[in-house]
Specification:
Mean pLDDT: 79
Structural class: mainly alpha
Number of helices: 7
Largest sheet: 2 strands, antiparallel
Low-confidence stretches: 1-10
Number of strands: 2
Number of domains: 2
Order of helices and strands: HEHEHHHHH
Distance between the termini: 49 Å
Oligomer: single chain
Length: 168
């Protein structure tokens, strides 16, 4: 993977001397995403450890760190659109992630007590939180965006698709 043309952004949360940080920055560059860039789909790091969690725990690590406010993007939908179009998972070889996987296995903070605490922190957030991110019906599923322009329309289209698909 070429690092020569990769844009590195200097912040307290991005370490350009770290091989894992450089690896992720180069990977995201292929999706036209810059770390700490100024475009709406660029990823902004707000805390240490986001990149390492994404490497060691994949989507779950990235998602939990987003929920914790440790990274963000102005247009999250565009961030993920760029990621999906670049087909980045096809470019990651397991050999490059062995170190991160071993480190996670050796230094695993997850215990039954911690799992309960994490569950409480992430799922006992109340309706105000979910109302802010879900449609008016509080539908917790992916929407069908083919002809929709809003989240409510996408969720309505998904419900119609499910209803009419089951009734045939």
């Amino acid at each position: 993977m070429e690092l020569e043309n990769t844009v590195f952004s200097h912040t307290a949360f991005f370490d350009e001397t770290s091989s894992s940080h450089r690896f992720i920055a180069a990977l995201l560059q292929q999706a036209d995403i810059h770390i700490n860039g100024n475009r709406p789909w660029d990823m902004r790091l707000n805390a240490h450890g986001v990149i390492d969690d994404a490497l060691t725990r994949g989507n779950l690590g990235l998602g939990e760190r987003y929920m914790d406010g440790d990274w963000d993007a102005d247009q999250l939908d565009e961030f993920f659109t760029h990621l999906m179009r670049a087909r980045l998972p096809d470019q990651i070889s397991p050999q490059k992630l062995v170190f991160h996987h071993l480190r996670t296995r050796l230094i695993n903070l997850q215990t039954a007590k911690r799992a309960f605490q994490v569950g409480e922190a992430h799922y006992d957030l109340g309706n105000d939180f979910y109302a802010a991110m879900l449609d008016k019906r509080m539908t917790y599923t992916c929407g069908y965006w083919k002809e929709a322009e809003t989240l409510d329309e996408a969720q309505e289209a998904k419900l119609d698709l499910m209803l009419y698909g089951l009734c045939r």
